[in-house]
Write a structure and sequence with these properties.
CATH class: Alpha Beta
Strand order of the largest sheet: 1-4
Shape: globular
Number of strands: 4
Helix content: 10-25%
Radius of gyration: 11 Å
Largest sheet: 2 strands, antiparallel
Bound molecules: iron/sulfur cluster
Length: 64
């Protein structure tokens, strides 16, 4: 299982990750990205590449 992780201290609210994620993991809330569907991540690699603030990472969760 993969989990999308947002560093809110770095996020500038640009919204690029919302458009880039094929699994629609992200939503905007109060001007920051929120990984509403974090565990739907398929580790496609788009969001760590596209985020201008390096605020996004993918964690590997338990359960394979
Ligand atoms: S791409 Fe990065 S800076 Fe932009 S909204 Fe997503 S997490 Fe925030
Ligand atoms: S790695 Fe891909 S699937 Fe996972 S949160 Fe980022 S854009 Fe979405």
């Amino acid at each position: 299982m993969y989990i999308a992780v947002v560093n809110w201290k770095k996020c500038n609210g640009c919204g690029e990750c919302i458009n880039a994620c094929p699994s629609k993991c992200f939503e905007m809330s109060d001007g920051k990205c929120w990984a509403q569907q974090a565990t739907d991540c398929i580790d496609c690699g788009n969001c760590p590449d596209i985020c201008p603030e390096e605020a996004l990472a993918v964690a590997v969760g338990w359960g394979g």
